[in-house]
DNA sequence: AAGTTTGTCAACCGCCTTAGA
DNA sequence: TTCTAAGGCGGTTGACAAACT
């Protein structure tokens, strides 16, 4: 199957946006919204592809974008979240109001990575390491929940139940989880998460034994096969659990 | 002052996921 | 169930500016 081009390239402009184009795009979106990005440029009278319009809007023109340098707190938050989430910039951005994934990615590559490289590994937060160690313990001590008797919750249900603080991350599919695991595995400081990473929830305080209750309470959306849980959501879950337990209370504020 | 290197960041590219027909 | 369009994501590029030689 040949992938259709994202847009009709002929005659469409590329490169930096002009002030006039910005104004046109902003006016159009403020007036009509952005229901269909592909159709938008034509309707707005822009010689750009929809993808370019979307990027310009989400990374620059959106009214809730926070401009200017990152504060120390924001940088610390990025570092800590990167420790947890790896290169999942959109997930990190979801926890930094007003900042875009692109911006965070740039800050990471231009500032934070270098800064961390200068620091010796031992200078990183003890609490971060304790968090990583805690997660490693789960990997060592827990078994995966794969019982076919447990009815998978829908991704939508799961997302709304659980990850309400994550804006638009692509949660919920086996492939995504695979991708997440790849990211995690490639992160230098991250514990490797095997298939047996996730605990037997029936042994946990928050979960009851019945599959019906599990379906309701289990925040992981155990969609089919493989890992049993949605890794992204599970990461959030464990992270919040640790915070509740007072392990990393002052690490990051959500 | 001119040339070169380095840093920054907006924008693009290609792949993946999702929704809907 | 399959196919396709659209949206979203992370990696990468390239233009520009600042710093350096």
Structure overview:
With 254 residues, this protein is mainly alpha-helical. It has helices at 19-32, 40-44, 50-61, 72-85, 89-93, 101-118, 126-141, 155-162, 174-186, 211-217, 231-244. The termini are far apart. It has eleven helices and no strands. It folds into three domains: 19-61; 72-122, Homeodomain-like (Arc Repressor Mutant, subunit A, Orthogonal Bundle), CATH 1.10.10.60; 125-244, no CATH class. Mean pLDDT is 59; it is low at 1-9, 130-234 and 241-254. Helices cover 50% and strands 0% of the residues. The protein binds a DNA duplex (21 and 21 nucleotides) through helix 3, helix 6 and helix 9.
Low-pLDDT regions = 1-9, 130-234, 241-254
- Sheet-strand content, in percent, reads under 5%
Indicate the overall shape. Answer: elongated
Order of helices and strands: HHHHHHHHHHH
Helix count equals 11
What is the gist of this entry?
One of its GO terms (molecular function) is DNA binding. The protein is mainly alpha-helical and 254 residues long. It contains 11 helices and no strands.
What are the salient characteristics of this protein?
mainly alpha; 3 domains; elongated; Arc Repressor Mutant, subunit A; 11 helices; 254 residues
Strand and helix layout:
Elements: H1 19-32, H2 40-44, H3 50-61, H4 72-85, H5 89-93, H6 101-118, H7 126-141, H8 155-162, H9 174-186, H10 211-217, H11 231-244
The chain binds a DNA duplex (21 and 21 nucleotides) through residues 1, 3-4, 6, 14-17, 36-38, 50-52, 54-56, 58-60, 87-90, 101-103, 105-107, 109-111, 168-170, 172-173, 175-176, 179, 183.
Biased composition (Polar residues): 118-129, 144-153
InterPro entries: Homeodomain-like_sf, Myb_dom, Myb_TF_plants, SANT/Myb
Domain Myb-like: 9-61, 62-112
